[in-house]
């Protein structure tokens, strides 16, 4: 049974913007599928600038954080970067407690993240 993706991918000014179309990123199988999809963007499609928009996400598991760290590592291998935006304050605390906040750049919204990459006039 094929499951629809919970990622919405668009390209804005050469930057790949990925929005999560789910409130919770907790299920191991769901995280594995998301990870594979995100890794393909970097590994196979050579997307160097990736913005992940967490605007809808309320809960995130440690496995999901591990997937983000792996995506960051893959991106760095091709001299790219992964930016995070739209993270709720309670979720940001998790990044801060685990000191992962030092590994990513965080932005309030997609517009600010894109502007940091030199893309203006986006959504």
Instruction: Output the CATH class name.
Output: Alpha Beta
Estimate what percentage of residues fall within beta strands. 15-25%
Q: What order do the helices and strands follow?
A: EEEHEEHEHEH
The count of strands amounts to: 7
Mean pLDDT, to the nearest integer, reads 92
Largest sheet: 5 strands, mixed
Q: Looking at CATH, which topology would you report? A: Transcription Regulator spoIIAA
Secondary-structure arrangement, i.e. CATH architecture: 2-Layer Sandwich
List the helices and strands and how they pair.
Blueprint: E1 7-12, E2 15-20, E3 24-25, H1 28-43, E4 49-53, E5 59-60, H2 62-77, E6 81-85, H3 89-97, E7 105-107, H4 110-116
Parallel strand pairs: 2-4, 3-5, 4-6, 6-7
Antiparallel strand pairs: 1-2
Give a quick precis of the structure.
It contains four helices and seven strands, in the order βββαββαβαβα. The radius of gyration is 13 Å and the shape is globular.
Task: Describe what this molecule looks like in 3D.
By secondary structure, the chain is α/β, with parallel strands linked by helices. The protein has one domain: STAS domain (Transcription Regulator spoIIAA). It is built from 4 helices and 7 strands. The protein has helices at 28-43, 62-77, 89-97, 110-116; strands at residues 7-12, 15-20, 24-25, 49-53, 59-60, 81-85, 105-107. A 5-stranded mixed sheet has the order 1-2-4-6-7. A two-stranded parallel ribbon has the order 3-5. Strand 6 (81-85), helix 3 (89-97) and strand 7 (105-107) form a beta-alpha-beta unit. Helix 1 (28-43) runs parallel beside helix 2 (62-77). The longest helix is centred in the N-terminal third of the chain and has 16 residues, at 28-43. The protein starts with 6 loop residues before the first strand and ends in a 7-residue tail after the last helix. The mean pLDDT is 92.
């Amino acid at each position: 049974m094929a499951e629809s993706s919970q990622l919405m991918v668009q390209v804005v000014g050469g930057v790949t913007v990925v929005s999560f179309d789910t409130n919770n990123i907790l299920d191991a199988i769901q995280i594995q599928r998301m990870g594979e999809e995100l890794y393909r963007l970097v590994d196979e499609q050579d997307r160097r600038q990736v913005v992940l928009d967490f605007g809808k996400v309320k809960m995130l598991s440690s496995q999901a954080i591990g997937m983000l760290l792996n995506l960051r590592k893959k991106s760095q291998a091709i001299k790219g970067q992964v930016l995070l935006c739209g993270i709720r304050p309670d979720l940001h605390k998790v990044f801060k407690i685990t000191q992962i906040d030092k590994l990513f750049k965080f932005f309030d919204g997609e517009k600010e993240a894109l502007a940091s990459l030199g893309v203006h006039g986006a959504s």
